[in-house]
Amino acid sequence: MRRVLRSLLVAAGLALGAVASAPAAVVVSSKLSTESATIGHMIRMLLEAHGIETIDRMTLAGTPIMRRAIIAGLVDVYVEYTGNAAFFFNVAADPAWKDLDAGYALGARLDYDAHRIVWLTPARASNAWALAVRTDVAGPAGLRTMTDFGRWVSGGGAVVLTCSAEFANSGVLRSLEKTYGFRLGPSQLIVLAGGDTSATIRAAAERTSGTNTAMVYGTDGAVAFFHLQVLDDDRHDQPIYAPVPIIREAVLRAHPEIAAIVKPLMESFDRDALQELNARVQINGEPPVSVAAEYLQSHGFLPRSATPAGGVARP
Hints:
The strands form three sheets. Strands 7-6-8-5-9 form a five-stranded mixed beta sheet. The chain has a three-stranded antiparallel beta sheet with strand order 3-10-4. The chain contains 15 helices and ten strands. The protein is α/β, with parallel strands linked by helices. 45% of the residues lie in helices and 14% in strands. It has helices at residues 2-15, 34-49, 63-71, 85-88, 100-115, 135-141, 146-154, 165-169, 172-180, 197-205, 222-225, 249-254, 258-267, 271-282, 288-298, and strands spanning 26-29, 54-57, 77-81, 117-119, 129-134, 161-164, 189-192, 213-217, 228-230, 243-248. The two termini are 26 Å apart.
């Protein structure tokens, strides 16, 4: 695995080799996910609108490679998730990760001390694992939180949950059961060996084998489209994975205004806003760059007459 990651990092370095010839340009990148890319495009457009030249390296790689790229200086800024720092620094047992502000503060300190990477303003939303119930079930049962769900299940609520084997077997489901005082029997679980959230959401939407509850990520775009209600983790059982732009300190020193430019954008995001943005890409098939531009314009971050700003694309 180390050899594979090293090879991928070398490939990323070659792909970004031209960065050295344009040191003033800020390399804005993203992971492969819809959410990471869409927010990344927004950040890049805002920097361009404020006269900061950028290099567009969206959807570059997954988390391990992105980490190596920013530490090596091959990427300047991209959107990370607060809870991932628990694994970057081998401190997953720290309860701080279950609180947005505490997890942000801890991750920001660890990343700065170790790598001189600065965490900018996080979104007030989490893309952590969650449960979502069909709205035609959640509404009549009054289900908005996991506490509601636990009470409902314990009282005989007819729940059928479709989830991945990882969710069922890694301890996540058992942790939720313990925290919220319920227990699902074998007849109430449909476990998909390779299931991702698109499969579990569709199972709930189509009532597959009686499914009315799905394993989801909190900001999944398909949740609202398929009429599911994400249940709030009101007792903070799961770590918070809030989107947060991270930037190399050297770049922020060269462009200190970036922190203020990004702050109102990230503060504009909540769970519903991110679900809607993700749905436009994942369900409607709109390009992330177009969704990003429209969001910036509709929220007054860019004038309506503005066209999507294009960073310098480097091979």
